[in-house]
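Usage

Read records sequentially. Each one opens with the input sequence:
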Amino acid sequence: MFEFVDRWAGFRDRVTRREALALGGIGALAMGGASVKATEAESKSRGTAKHLIFLSLFGGPPHQETYDIQHEAPSELRGEFQSVPTSLPGFRICEYMPKLAQLAHMYTVIRSMTHKDNGHESAYYALMTGRPHPLPNTANAGPTPTDYPSYGSVMSYLRPPQESVPSFVLTGGLISTHIGQTGGFLGPSWSPYVIKQDANTPGFNVPEFSLSDDVSQTRLDSRQGLLGRLNTGEKGSQPQTDANNFSTYQERAFDMLTSPRTQAAFDIESESPVTRAAYGDHPFGQNLLLSRRLVEAGVPVVQVNYRNRGDGGVDTHHDNFNICKGHVLPKLDGCISSLLIDLEERGLLDDTLVVASGEFGRTPKINLNAGRDHWGGCCSLLLAGGGIKRGYVHGSSDKNGAYPATDPIGPWDLYATIMHCCGIDPETTIHDNQGRPHRLCEGSVIENVLQNSLS
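and closes with the structure output:
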């Protein structure tokens, strides 16, 4: 079942198709926040990416065991993995990522993201919203209606799709407390459509994106016309913003039910066995394949969540090296490389920004349980397509992998860069439902990673 996230919104977590279509007649459930206005600052040049796929590696993958092997670190910090050369001269990554090593000419790696937040949820909030959490280092921090909206919600609001497809889809279900995965002060109508079931489930389908057997297209059209007339009548008896909020919600529900392109995108079993095998027989891999299908159908923003359930978590406090080489790295290596090749072969990579990042890295010191703990001091991530340089490494860490040695950036800078690449000025001002102005994020565009950068 899909969900409209925002647990405080009066709809609870879940709205069925029938409930979504019935909401128009219930004036007491108006969704505050969706009427905010936005003004965009002038920009000399902005990116032209049409789509975004965000690989959310919640838990914090170890940078020392992925893109930043520490050969010069002391033995108690270095770890047991070796590095291998890549297709980019002078750039080496972990030996358990051989496929991505062969594709290094296609993507950018940032080795110098840093911040001071070692709490999963509060650091994840910063990654998803471009703002530091008001209470950093807070474990189990939950969402609130005054949160800044996630990147996908902002993009949905400022750049809605021109076609009858969902604007923001989150695959694999929500993670943790749901923080950073809501519309925040924009309101629940700008939260993602959440696909709870995994695409590797036998017989995977999303029935909410198709009409019930007892509802014909003619009957649905009749319902939509009735709702339109009801809304027109309501505008005289309730605030204009409330009526507009309901209208937005209803239009998204009807679009979802009547979009053949979206319905076809969920038919993942139509993919060849070879393609499905390349992505991997696990939730994250098949959900990532689904993200490509959604992008191909015209969905602007897709987030793919990596979770402990079925994927093997990246929060490796214990047995870090066996977990990485036995589960995490082979899965990420296979499905990320397959996504890049797939997008390239289909002519979609230049128009699709791909981001793969966790909320932080791992401690330089290996703990007594052969694991690494939370560490915001340094983190590595991957960017590709959508106006990003091919074959580039931004920044470096110190010899212990503890802090950036060159070109540090924060999660807010990544957020600003995502917005820029997708054609949105990060200095855009949006207003919450109290009329207060907010800049989209506190970061700056990372100019050096852009394809049109002079450096």
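Summary fields computed downstream for this record:
- The radius of gyration is 22 Å.
- The mean pLDDT is 85.
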